[in-house]
Amino acid sequence: MKIGLIGCGRMGSALIGGIAKSGITTAQDIVIFDPNSDSVTKTTRDCGVNAAHNNLDVAARTQTILLAVKPQYISQVLEEIAPAITKDHLLISIAAGVTIKKMEQTCPSQTRIIRAMPNTPALISLGATGIAPGSHATRQDLELARELLQSVGIVTLTQESQLDAVTGLSGSGPAYVYTFIESLALQAEKEGLPLDEALKLATQTVIGAAHMVEQTDMTPRELVEQVTSPGGTTLAGLAALSEHGFEKSIAAGVHAAAERSREIAAES
Ligand SMILES: NC(=O)c1ccc[n+]([C@@H]2O[C@H](COP(=O)([O-])OP(=O)(O)OC[C@H]3O[C@@H](n4cnc5c(N)ncnc54)[C@H](OP(=O)(O)O)[C@@H]3O)[C@@H](O)[C@H]2O)c1
Known about the structure:
Blueprint: E1 3-6, H1 10-22, E2 30-33, H2 37-47, E3 50-51, H3 55-61, E4 64-67, H4 74-81, E5 90-93, H5 100-106, E6 112-117, E7 127-133, H6 139-149, E8 153-157, H7 163-171, H8 173-190, H9 195-215, H10 220-226, H11 233-243, H12 246-267
Parallel strand pairs: 1-2, 1-4, 2-3, 4-5, 5-6, 7-8
Antiparallel strand pairs: 6-7
Helix pairs in contact: 1-2, 7-12, 8-9
The chain binds NADP nicotinamide-adenine-dinucleotide phosphate (NAP).
């Protein structure tokens, strides 16, 4: 299987690195292009993949193409590669806010497109990605997209209308968690811990709690109950969090990010 990458920045290079290592195809069967020749040189050297002459060359030499340029360049790239797009091609775009309809309008009719919303932990193979099929994408296309993106984390199948919720949750979610870790550590410093030690403890607490959710059969609510005894410290902490609107703040954050994602898609 020949796989192409257009846009070899942070996300594109991480994705292609994951795919090259995954064994889905050989590195020799991967072709990449980016006008930034330093990015191309680094990725070809690190991953053993091949460089194309330009975007059209990527489309001519491969059938499955990952589009990882910034959203504002997607139309330009699609116009560039349109002459080489055939019914054998599958395009997988990770550009935030660029709708399938908009991409389909720029491509030859019947072009098979999948839209994906990954997040930055994909850079360390711990990504969480939602994928949605375009009007002409097949079940096999979705399976292939899932397999490719699973090389950098977990993948969930969605409808395009649900990608805004994915954006509000896992797309923007890492920033919520960074803020949470920072807030935990800053207050722990005020309670008497050195900040660097507090940051280490806060980070490990989030990692450990996430693994508990993942690796036990218990729901998050059951885990909360398990660690909360009457009159204890955790109960006092949870009560103060609720009193200050913790759950409501998180709900408002996810909602605001999902709404912003809907607005950006409508503007594009
Ligand atoms: N980072 C995230 O958390 C995240 C999450 C979800 C989705 N995404 C999406 O992922 C995409 C890439 O994001 P990123 O953070 O990896 O951006 P990035 O690091 O800026 O990478 C984009 C790359 O595309 C190159 N490029 C620009 N115009 C091009 C063209 N006409 N043909 C081929 N390559 C071109 C850029 O080169 P120059 O540097 O020379 O311009 C750059 O190397 C975006 O659409 C973004 O919405 C990102």
